[in-house]
Prior knowledge:
Layout: H1 3-10, H2 14-23, E1 30-31, E2 37-38, H3 43-55, H4 60-72, H5 77-124, H6 127-133
Antiparallel strand pairs: 1-2
Amino acid sequence: xxxxxxxxxxxxxxxxxxxxxxxxxxxxxxxxxxxxxxxxxxxxxxxxxxxxxxxxxxxxxxxxxxxxxxxxxxxxxxxxxxxxxxxxxxxxxxxxxxxxxxxxxxxxxxxxxxxxxxxxxxxxxxxxxxxxxx
Length: 134
């Protein structure tokens, strides 16, 4: 698969794919007879995994460490698991922070909804009743 096809199917730009290859996140692609990169379709699974790591905030240096360990084979499985365990702890903490923020937003939005109800109820009362309750 040529780099343009990988880019289209992965959602990454060709520039990003070349960058990832250059820094070691992606293995160097084989070259065809025209010296163009020729990727195996399995690269898409690895790119999708890297995208999940990036989306969850894993720093590039840790992604590189994971990639290096992966290249060294099954003897590094325990190290890779530890790296992912540590990242999962950070992701769970971040999710908890986001849930707390969401609760604040929901509470604030509900408060505004309540204010609209109070204002609408106040506006619907006859003028003489509005002064008594104020």
